[in-house]
Every structure is written in structure tokens, then in C-alpha cells.
């Protein structure tokens, strides 16, 4: 058996101890421990517990500044630019989401463009955060070049994750997707368990499409979701994040050895501005009900709205604990010693 059952309380305690060891202030260490644990609870191991060794490696290299967080550079009404000061991407994203929510509550809409930050781990974290405060969110980030632009051989675009969240009484709607068919974190999780991808996820070193995550990770060439459409969307999101933040593009990020100094956008909208929240809820439920009322292709299967399976997994993990890869859990403990 290559998994061990870990409770959320145990994971948070272990991670808080680890982050404190690497000189994060106690309150920040607790926040980082909570966010990584929550991602794991929700089944996003790739950007939760599995990401910890890489995160600590970045701290050791001095790529993550533990002495500060993001700060405002300039503001104009409901739009602001912030500098991440190369601090923790998680702490920066929480701060910028909160600021975008505050502006949305004041102006109906708020946008924070953030430059010079680090990996925000699971982007969906911040959509759930905004939804809990009653706000719609549209969030995106650029990345290191890790996909060929459609029709090209070399990596020239990022798998720039796009996140959209909509608050809802009976379960928030949250779309969290990388613009590669599978995120590299997801492929690493499958590789740890010697599992293939259900569909082609990238190219091998000979230019052939592959379902083998290890082969794709080795080549470093992920497949854009929707082929040429995903390629185009990746470019557009990179352009927007770069222009709005006056930060680094995927091209500039790729000039560095490690993935750092990213550009991100946090846009929040307060739907209560329209004063028809009951109608909004009814409309959402109509859309979800129509999707649910569909005959499944496979017996026993069903359709889901974005975020529905996350809620299901969250409930299961809280009740039964999380199945953590034993190799990863051992590495985490070794980092504390």
C-alpha cells in the first residue's frame, strides 16, 4: 500500500511546524498550513501536500521572500496594481482576493493586477474565498513556458490557469482549470501512482502524443486544452495579466531558471449590486438542473457542475481522512528534522 491516512488536524499541525521552521511568522505559517491542507482535503493533492517539497525548495533557494507580502503600487477607482515582492504566492493571492472583494463591495466590481509574485498553488482556493464572501470572481495567472503554441515544436506559451467562481446557496460553482489538458501537478500525482492519463496529455520527446505522465513530464511539453483554441486563450490571458500588472510575460518568466515573478489578475464582482439575488439563485439552479437532467453515457455515471465533485470529495475527506502518498508524507516529515 503506497498511501497513508492523514487527518486534516494532523496535516495542519505538521505543516505549520514545517513552515515555522523555515522562518515564516507563526500566523503566516498557520495560513499556509491551512491552505495546503484544504487543497488536499478537496482532492487536489498536486497543489496541496504533494507540492510542499517543491515549495520548501524554493524557500531554500531564496526564490520566496518570507519577510513580506504584496503591496499596492497604484490605484485608480476600482482598479489597482500590486507588487508581490516575490513573497509566497498563496499569501499574496489571499491578500489580493480580499482587496478585490472589498472594492467590489464598494464599487460593484474590483480588479487587482499583481506582478512579481510566486505560484499561487490551487487557483480555485481564491474563487472559494471570494464566493464565501458573496462575490463572483474571475482569476488567472501566467506561468513558465510549458506548452508549444499550436503548430510549433518548442514551448512558447504557459498553461496559464483560469479560475471562475460564482456564489450559490446550495454549493458554490467553481471552475479551476489549467489551459493544458492536465496540469503538470496532476500528471506528477498520477506518475507517483504509476497511472496513465485517461486521454492524451502531451508529447513525448519524439513528438508523439502520449498518455504516459512520466513521458510528458520528461519532455516538458503539455497539450493545450482544445488544441488551437487553448493555445490562443493561453496567449490572451498572458497578455492581459502582463499588461494589467505591468509585470512579466510567460516569455520573460521563461528566461529564469525557476518559475518565479509571475503576473496575476483578481477580478471580483458583487452580484448583490443588482438587488435581485433570489432571481440569480433561481437562474443558477435552472442551469444546473438542466445539466443534471441528462442521461449518462455510462451506467451509474452522471453530470456535474463545476465544483460539485470538489464538495463531494471534501465531505468524504473530512469524514474518512486523506489518502496521502507515503513517499510524499515521509519527505514532508524529513524536512522538519
Please give a structural write-up.
This protein has 337 residues and is of the alpha+beta class. The chain has a domain at 1-60 and 311-337: Malate/L-lactate/L-sulpholactate dehydrogenase, four-helix barrel (Hypothetical Oxidoreductase Yiak, Chain: A, domain 1, Orthogonal Bundle). The chain contains 12 helices and 13 strands. Helix 1 runs antiparallel to helix 2 (26-41) and helix 4 (89-107) runs parallel beside helix 5 (124-132). The mean pLDDT is 95.
Pick out its properties:
single chain, 337 residues, alpha+beta, Hypothetical Oxidoreductase Yiak, Chain: A, domain 1, 13 strands, 18% strand, globular
Helix and strand arrangement:
Blueprint: E1 3-6, H1 8-21, H2 26-41, H3 52-60, E2 71-76, E3 79-83, H4 89-107, E4 109-117, H5 124-132, E5 136-141, E6 147-148, E7 155-157, E8 162-166, E9 173-177, H6 184-192, E10 202-203, E11 209-210, H7 213-219, H8 228-245, H9 250-253, E12 262-269, H10 277-292, H11 308-320, E13 322-325, H12 326-336
Parallel strand pairs: 3-4
Antiparallel strand pairs: 1-13, 2-3, 4-12, 5-8, 5-12, 6-7, 8-9, 10-11
H-E string: EHHHEEHEHEEEEEHEEHHHEHHEH
Strand residue percentage: 15-25%
Q: Can you tell me the residue ranges where pLDDT is under 50 for at least 5 consecutive residues?
A: none
* Major sheet strand order: 2-3-4-12-5-8-9
The major β-sheet equals: 7 strands, mixed
Helix content: 40-55%
Task: Give the overall form.
Answer: globular
* Second rung of CATH, namely the architecture of the domain at 1-60 and 311-337: Orthogonal Bundle
Amino acid at each position: 500500500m503506497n498511501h497513508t491516512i492523514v487527518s486534516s488536524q494532523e496535516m495542519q499541525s505538521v505543516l505549520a511546524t514545517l513552515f515555522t521552521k523555515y522562518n515564516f511568522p507563526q500566523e503566516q505559517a498557520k495560513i499556509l498550513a491551512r491552505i495546503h491542507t484544504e487543497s488536499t482535503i478537496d482532492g487536489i493533492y498536486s497543489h496541496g501536500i504533494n507540492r510542499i517539497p517543491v515549495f520548501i525548495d524554493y524557500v531554500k533557494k531564496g526564490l520566496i521572500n518570507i519577510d513580506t507580502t504584496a503591496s499596492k503600487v497604484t490605484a485608480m477607482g476600482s482598479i489597482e496594481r500590486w507588487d508581490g515582492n516575490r513573497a509566497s504566492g498563496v499569501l499574496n493571492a489571499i491578500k489580493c482576493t480580499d482587496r478585490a472583494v472589498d472594492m467590489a463591495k464598494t464599487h460593484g466590481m474590483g480588479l487587482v493586477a499583481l506582478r512579481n509574485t510566486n505560484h499561487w498553488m490551487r487557483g480555485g482556493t481564491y474563487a472559494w474565498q471570494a464566493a464565501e464572501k458573496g462575490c463572483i470572481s474571475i482569476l488567472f495567472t501566467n506561468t513558465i513556458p510549458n506548452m508549444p503554441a499550436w503548430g510549433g515544436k518548442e514551448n512558447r506559451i504557459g498553461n496559464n490557469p483560469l479560475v471562475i467562481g460564482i456564489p450559490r446557496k446550495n454549493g458554490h460553482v467553481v471552475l479551476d482549470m489549467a489551459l493544458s489538458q492536465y496540469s503538470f501537478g496532476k500528471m506528477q500525482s498520477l506518475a507517483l501512482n504509476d497511472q496513465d492519463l485517461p486521454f492524451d496529455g502531451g508529447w513525448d520527446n519524439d513528438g508523439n502524443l502520449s498518455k504516459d505522465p512520466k513521458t510528458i513530464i520528461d519532455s516538458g511539453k503539455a497539450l493545450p486544452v482544445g488544441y488551437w483554441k487553448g493555445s490562443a486563450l493561453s496567449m490572451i490571458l498572458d497578455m492581459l495579466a502582463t499588461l494589467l500588472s505591468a509585470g512579466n510575460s510567460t516569455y520573460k518568466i521563461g528566461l529564469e531558471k525557476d518559475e518565479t515573478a509571475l503576473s496575476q489578475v483578481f477580478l471580483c464582482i458583487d452580484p448583490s449590486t443588482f438587488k435581485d439575488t433570489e432571481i440569480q439563485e433561481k437562474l443558477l439552479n435552472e442551469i444546473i438542473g438542466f445539466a443534471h437532467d441528462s442521461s449518462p453515457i455510462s451506467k451509474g455515471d452522471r453530470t456535474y457542475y463545476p465544483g460539485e465533485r470538489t464538495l463531494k470529495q471534501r465531505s468524504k475527506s473530512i469524514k474518512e481522512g486523506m489518502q496521502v502518498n507515503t513517499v510524499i508524507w515521509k519527505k514532508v516529515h524529513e524536512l522538519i528534522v
